[in-house]
Design goal:
The complex is a heterodimer of chains A (about 450) and B (about 350). Chain A has about 450 residues and is of the alpha/beta class. Chain A contains 13 helices and 17 strands. In chain A, β5 and β6 form a beta hairpin. Chain A starts with about 25 loop residues before the first strand and ends with a helix. Chain B is mostly helical and about 350 residues long. Chain B has a two-stranded antiparallel sheet with strand order 1-2. Chain B starts with a helix and ends with a helix. Classes of the chains: A alpha/beta (about 450), B mainly alpha (about 350). At the A-B interface, α8, β15, β16, α10 and α12 of A face α2, α3 and α20 of B.
């Protein structure tokens, strides 16, 4: 291993880390809020189908939303209580059905992860049983993409997987929730990794951790000492190391082709938080209803990592962490590079919420856009090998059909971060992606119509 | 508690990323200014007060023209802000480094006006221009006022600085004469070599800056020092300058090998005239050169070929300005055909090959 740690080759940047704001050594447990708004659409794919009714009594961990399609996930009640309403919540651009639960004031807070966790005996578990358990417990990718885990672990027939890459990079600035998890619960992370290895029939796993988290690296390294097949590797801190394709290149040196998924190079990637959830699911049958979230930024009084039940509102978290500080200017769900700003402080957290940032105006750097200098920074720094400035120009001109490269953009935000002219490159590329999707759907519709006509005549 | 704060009215909504590097256009431009400082100061040392007047004059004129032209489109406050963002200063200093120290004041003003109007604002201002504004102005002046543009002062202090045998006219501020390439073009290589022998000029003095030429054409070493800053800050990459200079070296080298009595040796070619200035500071101009590494290499080679052809076979002794301007015009085309390779594209190729 190179002295400076492994990393991906092309592009990337190193934004100010700001991780010191939110201590990763320990976390607190949020007292169960009086009300939880549990969205049915907390994952990529179809929303879960609500299966409870208004005024129903629900138990902690009870299934309240059923996976409704191949790509969908179960939703469970995070705490005991009464269903108070079935509404629509707005989570960014998504309007999701939701179950509002008035929690029972007598119940204790959601338990923290077990500090005495023991290794699992996996001998009795078959692949299918493990996948069924993961599906039942509603586990989705907790790094932010929220792809249903049981689907991700079932690659198409013919795909040969030989390495499991576990994402402990946590390359987003500010966030320390994964760091905190690895330092406090190495057993969950490692045992969850073993479970996934068994589910995929893989005997090699690589856990990549950036070198700004030496404690997490040491803790996992020590805990993994007796376990065969699991390597802990140190990555040189660089953004976006935690992006799937970049992490695969950094840790195992394989490159996934444009438009392809990791299984094409024999790899499957999971986030450390997901592995911990998988451990819980197998060890105790506990569904995914809580997670560690970094509540941080200079706009909140007491930044900290908190164990939070799914469906807790931003306002609740803000109050728990001592309220806003002067100059609070934006609330971001997720990290500063890829997270989504919200103006709704009642927005509930979800399975994929790794952080809630309270940013001040100074941190946000609200600057006017200057003309593009064609300096080429976005081109040399784009980890995907795209030409962001050209995609932006094409989008601005409405020439979306020529901007198909936009579909390879992972929206990591490196281009817009490094742009000396503060151009909102990612925003324009997103527009191009969206328009390209519309164009494709329209073409499919037209084709269907002509086919239908041809069938009639 | 939170309800009273009325947060929802105040929270800023915008697309990610929410972090932004602190490096903004003015940082970039003023860094380029700083990188030009060693060469500009050296010009003042070599050519004396005249050089300082030319540099200050063009810079001031460029900023004033920038302001006036901006005022046709934006309000006074914004025009002031933009004209001081450093980009007009960069153009001004670059233009000055492309002028002889003997430039009359009216030529400076016309040059600055042409750079800002024809070179920059007719295209829409910062970032929109196709051609390097300073070079547009230089070529305009060269064609419009050939006599004034080729009256080169010989540096005086430089000779003392480099501890080399000096020209006869010690007590003059400076004397006039042709540039090395001009001499070769006009009188042939042998005449130039004779002159070198009699005046004590050698390749070292060219590296230091002890030859005739425009302000920035003289000291290759100090230009390199400034370029080092740009490399360090990541504002320029090696691709353009290295491919440019290497191409000139190879082509002039071939001709020198063919006939060393007629063609000057390649080291003289790369050290003389504006090649270093052009290769490191003007061919690398962000706005008017390709954005991808591959494109930059093609751009550099193109500049090198045109420069060498003009120098070796053309009517003008020097071809850097023309070469860069022609390649500026080709930049959109180069950009179109030199997209960087997408992440993982080689995997796809390998897969197809094996399939």
């Amino acid at each position: 291993m190179s002295g400076r740690g492994l990393t991906f080759r092309r592009g990337g940047t190193h934004p100010p880390e700001n991780k010191e704001l939110c201590d990763a050594a320990s976390y607190t447990v949020l007292p169960t809020p009086a009300e939880l708004v549990v969205a049915m659409s907390q994952h990529l794919g179809a929303p879960a189908k609500t299966i409870v009714h208004n005024r129903d009594e629900v138990e902690a961990g009870q299934l309240i939303g059923e996976a409704s399609a191949f790509i969908s996930a179960n939703i469970h009640a995070p705490a005991k209580g009464t269903v108070k309403g079935l509404d629509i919540v707005h989570i960014g651009p998504v309007n999701s059905p939701a179950v509002t639960i008035k929690t029972d004031p007598a119940v204790p807070p959601v338990p923290e992860y077990d500090r005495e966790a023991q290794p699992l005996d996996l001998s009795g578990w078959t692949k299918d049983e493990i996948l069924a358990r993961i599906k039942e417990t509603g586990i989705v990718g907790m790094g932010g993409a929220t792809f249903p885990t049981h689907v991700k672990l079932s690659p198409p027939p013919g795909a040969e997987l030989d390495v499991l890459v576990i994402n402990g990079a946590e390359c987003e600035p500010y966030l320390t929730a994964d760091d905190c998890l690895m330092r406090n619960h190495p057993v969950q992370v490692l045992e969850g990794t073993r479970v996934i290895m068994q589910a995929c029939g893989i005997d090699r796993a690589v856990i990549g951790i950036e070198d700004n988290k030496p404690e997490a690296f040491q803790t996992l390294k020590a805990a993994a000492a007796g376990l065969g097949g699991i390597e802990i590797v140190r990555c040189r801190t660089r953004y976006p190391q935690g992006a799937e394709k970049q992490l695969i290149e950094a840790t195992v040196g394989r490159k996934v082709a444009p438009g392809n998924l990791p299984f094409t190079v024999g790899v499957v990637v999971q986030n450390v938080a997901t592995t911990a959830a998988v451990y819980e699911a197998l060890a105790t049958g506990q569904p995914l209803t809580r997670r560690l979230i970094s509540i941080t930024g200079r706009g909140v009084a007491r930044p900290q990592n908190v164990m939070v039940p799914v469906g807790t509102s931003v306002a609740e978290l803000l109050e728990y962490c001592g309220g806003p500080k002067d100059g609070l200017a934006a609330v971001v769900m997720g990290g500063p590079m890829m997270g989504r700003a919200t103006s709704d402080i009642n927005e509930p957290t979800a399975k994929g919420t790794s952080g809630v940032l309270f940013l001040t105006k100074d941190e946000l750097i609200v600057a006017e856009e200057d003309p593009c200098l064609r300096c080429g920074r976005c081109v040399s720094d784009c980890p995907m090998g795209l030409v962001p400035t050209e995609l932006m120009s094409l989008a601005m001109l409405g020439r979306f059909e020529e901007a198909t490269d936009a579909l390879d953009c992972v929206e990591c935000g490196t281009c817009a971060f490094v742009c000396p002219s503060n151009r909102r490159l990612v925003q324009w590329i997103r527009l191009a992606k969206w328009e390209l999707g519309r164009i494709r759907r329209r073409a499919q519709l037209k084709q269907k119509e002509t086919e239908a006509k041809a069938a009639k005549s | 508690m939170l309800a009273e704060l009325n947060l929802e009215q105040r929270l800023i909504l915008r697309s990610s990323p929410h972090a932004l590097s602190k490096e903004q256009v003015p940082h970039v431009m003023w860094t380029v200014v700083a990188s030009l400082a060693p060469a500009a100061l050296a010009a003042c040392w070599f050519f004396g007060l005249r050089a300082l007047l030319v540099i200050v004059g063009t810079t001031l004129a460029c900023v004033v023209f920038e302001y006036l032209l901006l005022r046709t489109r934006v309000d006074a406050r914004k025009a002031m802000l933009i004209s001081l963002d450093g980009s007009a200063v960069v153009t001004g200093i670059l233009l000055a480094l492309n002028l002889p120290a003997s430039s009359p004041w009216w030529m400076i003003v016309i040059g600055a006006g042409i750079a800002m109007l024809l070179g920059k604002h007719l295209f829409g201002g910062l970032g929109q221009n196709i051609f390097n504004p300073a070079l547009v102005a230089r070529v305009f002046l060269l064609l419009a006022f050939p006599a004034e543009m080729t009256t080169w002062l010989y540096p005086k202090s430089g000779a003392q600085f480099a501890q080399l045998p000096n020209l006869a006219a010690e007590n003059l501020d400076a004397v006039t004469g042709a540039t090395p390439l001009g001499m070769i073009k006009a009188d042939g290589l042998q005449a130039f070599l004779d002159w070198c022998a009699s005046s004590g000029t050698n390749l070292w003095s060219m590296l230091w800056g002890n030859t005739g030429g425009s302000l920035g054409e003289t000291s290759a070493l100090l230009l390199l020092l400034g370029a080092g800053l740009l490399f360090w800050r990541g504002y320029i990459s090696w691709h353009t300058p290295v491919s440019y200079i290497a191409t000139v070296f190879v082509l002039t080298g071939i001709m020198w090998l063919v006939n060393p009595h007629y063609y000057a040796n390649p080291v003289l070619h790369i050290l003389s005239a504006g090649l270093f200035l052009g290769a490191f500071f003007m061919a690398t101009d962000m706005v008017t050169s390709p954005v991808s590494a591959k494109g930059m290499v093609i751009f550099g080679i193109g500049c090198g070929v045109i420069t060498a052809v003009i120098r070796l076979f053309g009517a003008f002794p020097e071809g850097v300005s023309f070469a860069i301007l022609i390649m500026n015009g080709l930049t959109p085309l180069i950009d179109r055909y030199t997209k960087p390779r997408k992440f993982g594209a080689e995997t796809l190729k390998r897969g197809e090959a094996s399939a």
